[in-house]
Automatic annotation (TrEMBL), chain A:
Gene3D superfamilies: MetI-like
Lineage of the organism: Bacteria, Pseudomonadati, Pseudomonadota, Alphaproteobacteria, Hyphomicrobiales
PROSITE patterns referenced in this protein's UniProt entry, alphabetically: ABC_TM1 (PS50928)
Designated name of the protein: Spermidine/putrescine transport system permease protein
Family: Belongs to the binding-protein-dependent transport system permease family. CysTW subfamily.
TrEMBL record, chain B:
Family affiliation: Belongs to the ABC transporter superfamily.
Originating species: Ancylobacter tetraedralis
Protein name: Spermidine/putrescine transport system ATP-binding protein
Origin superkingdom: Bacteria
GO process annotations (BP): quaternary ammonium group transport
CC annotations in GO: ATP-binding cassette (ABC) transporter complex
Domain ABC transporter span(s) in chain numbering: 5-235
Pfam families: ABC_tran, TOBE_2
GO MF, any single term: ATP binding
InterPro entries the UniProt entry points to: AAA+_ATPase, ABC_SmlMolc_Importer, ABC_transporter-like_ATP-bd, ABC_transporter-like_CS, Mo/tungstate-bd_C_term_dom, P-loop_NTPase, Transp-assoc_OB_typ2
Length: 338, 359
């Protein structure tokens, strides 16, 4: 019964939301709050229908339905297939409880391993986002304001081409490069700087490098777009009024590029916190990243409901965190899409 | 007292392109000095050279007697007003004006005091807290001026700041700019392609063409005593007639043209046989002049009569097909289109200049 109930909720909720919105729009039209030509008048019937169907399908089947199914699953107990939808299939908070307190048989008060991994993931993602910004800002500024067209094209190519290589392959390439017999250790030892190979992977340097590199473009392009739209005269005016270069960046360029900075940082933070390939391939033996734990819930523990709960905890935390940061910088969600 | 700005043999080249050629100039303290020329003549390049955004390829720029070589725009005693004003949109009006003081580390209360005075000076007292986008074109203009004046520059550089305004506001801002300059007493260097602006506001004008300063003088000098054909043709309306000098006497010369012999002043000392251009202002042409008694004359056919009230512009065609413009005063009898007329001018109203080889 509850299986049916879940399905009804999963499909019903978005439908109800869509119907309410449609009714609201019709109501506004009737009361005269909304004016101007209607959606179909503006786009024509054929294109209008296509837009409604395409966007509706995309939003509903590709985005909403899987996520809602995940939400639904995260509140269910782990059951063998035969009992699914049976009398034991009741909504429960067990999976969320597990994240905080661990197994009921465990003696520890809190589930420290998972909680630590979770906060490490969030914390390191913040650091990597900041690091990415520090690397990308000068480059984006150069590309947007001072590079010649030829130089800009070259830089864009150099930035984009490495990303033709698959993410997992790139992670393995880092691993090969940084391994104890890898070329970097060979160079270090050959030059006499160290006598023994340095274990970059155990020190998590490999992981941080891989994560920083993985989503570099997501930082560069929003920054580039934002800085590019800054009138060059603004920079010159500030310089003419006596501003040193750092002041121009801090008080002219960065405030102007705030939406781009926010958009780049949001993307990099979200993607880093949710990255799987780099932590799996490059993660040191002592470091537990959160995404591999989620992965393990699904594929090692075969506990899909628990995996769903863990994934949701990460997703919701990231979204809340991003919204709070945007709020702190007085940016609306609409602005970062500019 | 040292000159405000001195240019000595300034050349600016971009690759093969010579933007400014051999500029030599002294601008006095407290002077309203204009660079006048068509777009692409190098006047903006020269302004950017003075402000420090461009280093001259050769030659030197001195401001207040001090050589500016290697001194960046942020450390020069100049302030530049940009063509698009370049106000900072994310700051309020007061923050814009105070920006230069803020980067100089002027303490807050002192800064606020100064910004307040500047707001009074440009009549924007009520608008200090507003965003720049909320202001009208003329108000933005005044914010830009106040922002530049806040840093107390020795020289204020203005790059066609009025060009974006509508005609009426532009004319109003001319008077206002001139009044502000008189009040603060610093040197203004003004760039424009609009001769009206240059003539009405400036103490002196440098007329530029193709990277070369062709003539420097006050408004009357560049209008009434142009030294080159470019200046004669660019500053104000002018009719030009080609010919060859046949006779020279007492500062006057006679030019043999397809329209007959025409007499004019010969200030540059052209000799017999030289190719020359004769310039006659439209307002110097008289209708029905017999041409023989007191000056030169030629025949022309009336094409178009444009009555403007105080004056009337008459377009005529001479025998060679060339068009000539005559401007008649309010009391004149007006010709009818198609009418054949005799046009004349006094010899002192005709100006003979050497014809450039390429023209």
């Amino acid at each position: 019964m509850s299986g049916i109930g879940g399905l009804t909720l999963t499909i019903g909720l978005p439908l109800i939301a869509a119907l309410v919105l449609a009714a609201l729009s019709a109501y506004e039209r009737r009361t005269g709050t909304a004016t101007g030509p209607g959606f179909f008048q503006r786009n024509g019937l054929a294109i209008g229908l296509y837009l409604v169907v395409a966007v509706g399908f995309w939003a509903f089947f590709i985005i909403l339905l899987p996520q809602l199914a995940m939400v639904d699953m995260s509140f269910r107990p782990k059951l063998p297939p035969a009992q699914m939808g049976g009398p034991k299939d009741l909504y429960t908070l067990e999976n969320y409880r597990y994240f905080l307190f661990g197994s009921t048989t465990s003696t520890a008060e809190w589930n420290w391993i998972h909680i630590k991994a979770f906060f490490l993931t969030i914390g390191v993602s913040v650091v990597i986002t900041a690091f990415n910004f520090v690397i990308c800002y000068p480059l984006a500024f150069h590309m947007a304001q001072s590079a010649t067209l030829a130089r800009l094209r070259l830089l864009l190519l150099l930035l984009i081409i490495p990303y033709w290589v698959n993410e997992i392959l790139r992670a393995f390439a880092f691993r090969v490069l940084l391994s104890s017999g890898g070329i970097i250790n060979q160079l270090l030892m050959g030059s006499g700087l160290t006598s023994e190979p340095f274990d970059f992977l155990a020190a998590d340097i490999g992981l941080y490098m891989g994560l920083s590199y993985a989503y570099l473009l997501m930082m560069i392009f929003p920054l580039y777009n934002a800085i590019e739209s800054l009138d060059r005269n603004q920079i010159e005016a500030a310089r003419d009024l006596g501003a040193p270069w750092w002041h121009i960046h801090a008080f002219i360029v960065m405030p102007h590029s705030k939406p781009g900075i926010a958009s780049g940082c949001t993307l990099v933070f979200m993607l880093t916190a949710g990255a799987l390939a780099a932590p799996l391939v490059l993660g040191g033996p002592r470091t537990l990243w959160f995404t591999p734990i989620v992965y393990d819930r699904f594929y090692q523990a075969f506990n899909w409901p628990q995996g769903a709960a863990y994934a949701l905890i990460l997703l919701v935390t990231c979204i809340v965190f991003v919204l709070v940061v945007l709020r702190a910088f007085r940016l609306s969600l609409g602005e970062i899409t500019r | 007292m040292a000159a405000a700005v001195e240019l000595e043999g300034v050349n600016v080249t971009f690759g093969d392109f010579v933007a400014v050629r051999q500029a030599n100039l002294t601008i006095e303290p407290g002077e309203f000095f204009s660079f006048l020329g068509p777009s692409g003549c190098g006047k903006t390049t020269l302004l950017r050279t003075i402000s420090g955004f461009i280093e001259p390829t050769h030659g030197s720029v001195r401001i207040g007697g001090q050589d500016m070589k290697g001194i960046g725009p942020n450390r020069r005693p100049t302030a530049l007003i940009f063509q698009n004003l370049a106000l900072f949109p994310m700051m309020s009006v007061a923050e814009n004006i105070g920006y230069g003081l803020r980067v100089r580390g002027v303490p807050r209360h002192e800064r606020d005091e100064k910004v307040k005075n500047l707001l009074i000076q440009v009549a924007l007292t009520e608008h200090g807290h507003k965003r720049v986008a909320e202001l009208s074109g003329g108000q933005k203009q005044r914010v830009a001026i106040a922002r530049a004046l806040a840093v107390e520059p020795k020289v204020l550089l203005l790059d066609e700041p009025l060009s974006a305004l509508d005609l009426k506001l532009r004319q109003h801002m001319r008077t206002e700019l001139r009044a502000i300059q008189k009040k603060v007493g610093i040197t203004f260097i003004y760039i424009t392609h609009d001769q009206g602006e240059a003539l009405t506001m400036s103490d002196r004008i440098a007329v530029m063409n193709a990277g070369v300063i062709e003539q420097v003088g006050d408004g009357r000098a560049v209008y009434a005593e142009p030294r080159t054909p470019f200046v004669a043709a660019f500053v104000g309306e002018n009719n030009q007639i080609r010919g060859r000098i046949t006779q020279v006497a007492d500062g006057f010369a006679t030019l043999e043209t397809p329209l007959g012999l025409l007499k004019g002043r010969n200030p540059v000392g052209l000799g017999v046989g030289e190719e020359a251009l004769l310039f006659v202002r439209p307002e110097a042409l008289r209708l029905g002049h017999d041409g023989q008694a007191s000056g030169s004359g030629f025949e022309a056919e009336t094409l178009d009569v444009a009555y403007e009230g105080s004056v009337t512009h008459v377009t005529l065609r001479v025998r060679t097909g060339q068009k000539i413009t005559a401007t008649l005063g309010a009391g004149s009898a007006l010709p009818a289109p198609g009418e054949m007329l005799c046009l004349g001018f006094a010899p002192q109203d005709g100006l003979l200049l050497k014809r450039p080889e390429r023209a």
